[in-house]
Design the sequence.
């Protein structure tokens, strides 16, 4: 009897430990589900960030731009994509015209390809984006690094081509570019220190600090759900 009692006593703390672990896991799952649901509609406070807008996805999905404006967007950035990549959706030109017709301020994002020459990329930009003083400053998206390029491209070559691209885009647009800088690109090239351009950083819900200096634009929610489309948008705010 005494021996059986000791075994039972030893098992009791283990059962409580398993129960606590299960409870913690359940709480974690519940919190993750709540956070996911909350982030579908979360936006930074308009009192702190009165200028807010959206970056549209690059898949060519159609958007109701008047509705986007009605839910609080004052501006919209459109990714510059190959017309063939829209897969039957709205083309860049159609989106551009529709956004302006809705009374939104419009800007364009060119995602930098570290494997491609700057001339090719700036040529596409110049061909598709009109010279217009009313456009927002163009943005250059700096996401992936050159690890997958074939043939290989050195970091020095990437930085040289990027500087060339910046100069070419600024010459066409007549205004300085904004650098939409990812943590990966910043860690590899230290771009925020070497290039004195306004920054556009991204981090869901929490203010980004990975550039080491102030930013102008913040992608605060990477997948905001709105009535403007079935596809979510990247919600962007402006630093006062």
Sequence:
């Amino acid at each position: 009897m005494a021996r059986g009692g000791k075994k039972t006593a030893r098992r009791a703390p283990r059962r409580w430990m398993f129960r606590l672990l299960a409870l913690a896991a359940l709480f974690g799952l519940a919190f993750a589900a709540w956070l996911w649901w909350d982030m579908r509609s979360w936006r930074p406070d308009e009192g702190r960030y009165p200028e807010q807008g959206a970056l549209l996805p690059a898949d060519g999905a159609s958007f109701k731009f008047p509705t986007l404006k009605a839910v609080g967007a004052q501006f919209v950035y459109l990714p510059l994509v190959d017309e063939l990549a829209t897969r039957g959706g709205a083309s860049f030109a159609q989106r551009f015209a529709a956004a302006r017709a809705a009374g939104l301020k419009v800007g364009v994002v060119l995602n930098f390809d570290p494997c491609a020459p700057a001339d090719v990329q700036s040529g596409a930009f110049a061909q598709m984006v009109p010279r217009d003083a009313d456009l927002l400053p163009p943005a250059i998206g700096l996401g992936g690094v050159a690890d997958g390029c074939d043939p290989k491209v050195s970091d020095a070559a990437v930085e040289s081509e990027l500087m060339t691209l910046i100069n070419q885009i600024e010459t066409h647009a007549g205004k300085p570019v904004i650098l939409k800088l990812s943590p990966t690109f910043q860690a590899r090239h230290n771009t925020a220190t070497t290039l004195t351009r306004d920054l556009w950083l991204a981090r869901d819900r929490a203010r980004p600090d990975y550039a080491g200096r102030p930013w102008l634009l913040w992608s605060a929610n990477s997948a905001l759900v709105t009535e403007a489309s079935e596809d979510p948008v990247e919600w962007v705010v402006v630093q006062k």
User: Anything to note?
Assistant: The beta strands are 52-55, 75-79, 105-111, 139-142, 178-181, 198-202, 217-224, 233-238. The first strand starts at residue 52 and ends at 55.
